[in-house]
Amino acid sequence: MTFPTTTLWRSKRLVRPLPWFMAAAMLLLSGSGAMATTLEQFISRIKSSHPYMKREAIGPQVEATERQRLAGDKDWILRITPNARHTESNLAQPGQPETATIYGTRMSLEKTIWATGTRIRFTADTQYVDQTWGQQLTGPQNKPPGGGAAQNPGLSTEAQYQTGVGVNISQPLLQNRGGAQDRVRYDAAEYQVEGSQAKAYENQKDFLLQMAESFVDWALAQERVKIAGERVKAEQEAMGRVGDKAKSGRMAPQNAALDAARAEDAVMSARRNLALAEAAMKSLRARLAELAKSQKMNRESAELRLYETSAILSAEKAKKRAIGQSGVVRALSAQKKQLATVGEGLADKSDPQLTLNLGAGLKGEDPDYSQSLGMDKQEWNASLKFVYPIGNNSATQEVKKNRLQRMRVEEDIRAARLDVSAQVVDIITRIKETDKALAVSREHVAAATVRATEEARIYSKGKGDFALVQLSRDNEEKARMLLAETSAERWKLKLALDAALGAI
Q: Strand locations in 173-262, DSSP E?
């Protein structure tokens, strides 16, 4: 919606184009080219190219990667441990070798099963053992491990190969039953990711709102250029009319000179205002083009229906939707879920430890490596381990601390929801009041236009004062500028509401 500036005089003869008139016309044309960019296009460019948007998107990815790292705790783990050992002793001890040389490799494959808390480990061992015995061995209790009936000092037994395989299982029966302790960090990290996504969303939303408001400022700057340009054109035409009137002899010489000076001063003032408006608009456009990484924007104009007033939701509907879209509320809700998950782990940790350990395997020993692989010797073990700290004060206090933290976050959520509701009510109220101001401003522009037209008509008949004509035109221009600025403010309020509702 635009309001044309009133032309003071109408004449059958056109005014001769002056150099500064042509310059002003070129300025107007340069700001209203065929190319234009809409608010949606500008925001799309910012989303796709601005580093801030990309930076905020990386945060949740970092948290997701960290969560996947924690998932590695349930993977199969392969351990291979080659070893070599040589020992010598000058002290003769019954049943102990004087020298021993051992080479071997131990392999294990182990896994933690999160669904049950079970730890299972498969092992495979092979060793080469070479020992010498430096004392007389008598009795079956003092026989070398390789067997035989050594009777002389300095006896060297035959080297042997030892091989074996086994499986060990550790099953928690109280604490960590069902794997509560094993997966608590991984489960809690899910809500860390969720909270990071909510924070990134809120930060991006605030940034896009700033960019959208800057776009409205660009559209407002264009409207100021337009209004200033129309004022230049009107003043140039007025100065031509004053000159024609003076030449026709319808004015006293002294009055003609004064009005001509006033008209020239008005033209210079209007041209200065146009130049300032043009400079402000171009600098703002250049900044936005740089932010959007689109140099062609410097040759475009902002396409925005500045004077349009779109409908808004009712306060109750807007509050409900805004609370659901609030990144702050969502981040706090994720924090609450995270604390609840940690709390479950802490409650489990306060239980006693009761663990059943089972193991079984096969062994083989023989000087011949291939024979040792027969593994004809069995072994097994079983144990039950119970651990319970008397008092268990530390775990109890951790559970209490977690419960208090959850209570505090619940209050934070209530406060955040209240803040969102208050913000929405404030914006909607300001929009409604701004709409009232816009209605008054439109009436002001209409009245100012009528006044300017009437002052020009009276002056054209030689009954008015040129100063009053200029004053009425100033009043009309100020009214139009105020209407444009109020409309821009209304647009920013609507954008703020859209952002709160997740529509930006």
A: none
* Extended strands (E) in 90-184: 99-113, 118-132, 160-172
C-alpha 233, offset from chain centre: 49
Give one DSSP letter per residue of 436-463, joined into a string. HHHHHHHHHHHHHHHHHHHHHHHHHTT-
Instruction: Answer yes or no: are the C-beta atoms of 189 and 70 closer than 8 Å.
Output: yes
456 and 237 Cβ atoms separated by less than 8 Å: no
Rg from Cα positions in the chain: 44
461, exposed or middle or buried, with CB in 10 Å at 0-12, 13-18, 19+?
exposed
As a dihedral over the C-alpha atoms of residue 191, residue 196, residue 202, residue 206, rounded to 10 degrees, the angle is 170
Residue 99's nearest CA partner among 83, 87, 85 is 87
Both structure tokens of 253:
């010489």
Task: Write down the number of H helices and E strands in the chain.
Answer: 10, 8
Provide the CA 355 distance to its chain's centre, in angstroms.
Answer: 45
* Site of tokens 């949740």: 60
Residue 119 has phi, psi (to 5 degrees) of -115, 125
Q: Is 128 exposed, middle or buried (0-12, 13-18, 19+ CB in 10 A)?
A: middle
- Residues 6 or more apart in contact with residue 336 via CB below 8 angstroms: 406, 409, 410, 413
Task: Check the CA dihedral 73-74-75-78 and report its sign.
Answer: positive
Closest by CA position to 189, among listed 411, 339, 343, 395: 339
Q: Is the pLDDT of residue 286 over 80?
A: yes
Distance of alpha carbon 74 from alpha carbon 191, whole angstroms? 19
pLDDT value for 22: 37
Residue 144 and residue 158: Cα distance in Å, rounded?
A: 10
Q: What is the pLDDT of residue 249?
A: 61
Euclidean distance between CA atoms 372 and 161, whole angstroms: 6
107: which 2 tokens?
Answer: 């392999």
The predicted model gives 154-161 an average pLDDT of 66
Write out the E strands in 138-295. Answer: 160-172
Can you give the pLDDT at residue 26? Answer: 40
Q: How far apart are CA 255 and CA 238, in angstroms?
A: 15
C-alpha span between 30 and 393 (Å, rounded):
78
| pLDDT exceeds cutoff 60 at 144 | no
Contact between residue 421 and residue 322 where contact means Cβ atoms under 8 Å apart: yes
The residue ranges of DSSP E strands in 173-323, in sequence order, are: 301-303
- The angle, 0 to 180 degrees and rounded to 10, between the axes of the packed helices 393-460 and 315-325 is 130
Decide: residue 462, CB within 10 A, 0-12 exposed, 13-18 middle, 19+ buried: exposed
